[in-house]
Amino acid sequence: MSSLSLAVRDSSTMLRRNLLHARRYPSLTLNLLLTPVMLLLLFVYIFGDVMSAGIGDGGADRSEYIAYLVPGLLLMTIGSTTIGTAVSVSMDMTEGIIARFRTMAIHRGSVLIGHVIGSVVQSVMSVLLVGVVGVAIGFRSTDATAVEWAAAFGLLVLFTLALTWIAVGMGLVSPNAEAASNNALPLIFLPLISSTFVPVDAMPGWFQPIAEYQPFTPAIETLRGLLLGTEIGHNGWLAVAWCLALSALGYFWSKAVFNRDPR
Asked: What radius of gyration, in Å, describes the C-alpha atoms of the chain?
C-alpha cells in the first residue's frame, strides 16, 4: 500500500475510535451542547422583548431578535463542542494510549486527524441540533438563496476546522483533562464578548474594539448575513482569513507538540 493509502486507512480507524468514544460517553458532548441551547432559550423567552427593544427602534419584536441571535449561537455551539476535543486529546496523551500508538506501525498523523475529523462531525451535528431548536422557537431563513445556504454551511465547517485544530493544540499541551477544559474556555468566552447577543455599535466605545477584532464577530456577521440574506460587507473576507490563520496555527502547533518526545 502507498503511504497515502496507509494514512487514509489509519485515519479512518482513528476516526471510528473517536466516534465510538463519543457514543459511549455522550455526557461530555451533551453538557457542552446544553450551554448554547440554554442561552438561546434564556435570551429569547426571558430577555427577548427587552433585548429586541434595546437594539431596534424601541419596539419589542421577539421574532427579529431570534433571527439576530441564532447565527451567533450556532458558532458558539462550535466553540463549546470543541472543548470536548481538547479534553479527549489530553486524556489520550496522559493515559498512555498515545505512547502505545507510537510503538505500532500506524501513520503518525492519523491520531490527530482522527480527533479533528471526529470533532468536525460532532460539531456539525451539534450545530444542526441547535438549529432545529432555533427553528422550533421561530427562526426563519426565508431570504437566503441556495448559494448563501451552501456558503453558510461551508463557513460553519471551516470555522469548526479552525477551532478544532486550536483545541487539539490546547489538549496536547495540557497536563490533564481538567487543565485542557480550563485552557479551552476562551472558545466559549469569546462569543460572549462578540456580536452574538447585541450589535457591536450598541456596546460601550472602549469595549467595541475588543468585540470587533476577534475571530467570532466577523464569522457571526458573515453567517448572519448569509442566513438572513443581508449584506456581509468585508466580514466575509475577515472570517475566511481568521479561519485559515487559526487552522494553520493550530495545525503546526499541534504537529510540533505531538512530534516531541513523549512526556
From this structure: 19
Distance between CA atoms of 243 and 215, rounded to whole angstroms? 8
Exposure string of 123-140, with b = 16+ CB inside 10 Å and e = fewer, is bbebbeebbebbeebebe
Cα dihedral across residues 235, 169, 71, 192: positive or negative: negative
CA–CA separation, 127 and 37 (whole Å)? 10
215, 195 contact by CB (below 8 A): no
pLDDT interval class at 239 (50, 70, 90): very high
For residues 137 and 158, what is the distance between their CA atoms, to the nearest angstrom?
27
- Amino acid present at 181: S
Over range 53-63, report the average pLDDT. 63
Cell of 187: 472558545
Taking the C-alpha atoms of residue 261 and residue 263, their distance in angstroms, rounded to an integer, is: 6
DSSP one-letter code for 230 = -
The one-letter code for the residue type at 52 is S
- Comparing CA positions, the residue from 9, 21, 183 lying closest to residue 110 is 9
Q: Which residues lie below 8 Å from residue 173, measured CB to CB, with a gap of 6+?
A: 183, 257
What confidence score (pLDDT) does residue 152 get?
Answer: 93
